[in-house]
Amino acid sequence: WIAEKIQERTDTEFDAQENLNKRLLSLQLAFDLGEFGEEEFEAEEEEILLKILALEEEASREAEAEEVQLA
Predict the structure, then answer these.
(1) What CA–CA distance (Å, rounded) separates 67 from 48?
(2) Each residue of 46-61: pLDDT tens digit?
(3) In whole angstroms, how large is the CA radius of gyration of the chain?
């Protein structure tokens, strides 16, 4: 049961991070095509990167907590 819950959570986090990575690539492409300026690109890029970082930190904290529970 615990393994299933861990797997479900991991899948959800992976999907969220994958979606953010896709948004980042899309943003880069739109910038390269001249759809908006550098200032707007940098602001959007920073927002996406901060979300990715937050997901990674959350995953790390959860992994540590699960290790403590299993010990």
Answers:
(1) 29
(2) 999 999 999 889 888 8
(3) 16
Estimate to the nearest angstrom the gap between the alpha carbon of 39 and the chain centroid. 22
Q: Do residues 63 and 13 make contact, with C-beta atoms less than 8 angstroms apart?
A: no
C-alpha 66 chain-centroid distance: 20
How many CB atoms are located within 10 Å of the residue 19 CB? 12
The 10s digit of each residue's pLDDT in 5-23 is 666 666 666 688 889 999 9
The pTM of the full predicted model, rounded to 2 decimals, is 0.73
The DSSP annotation for 56-67 comes to HHHHHHHHHHHH
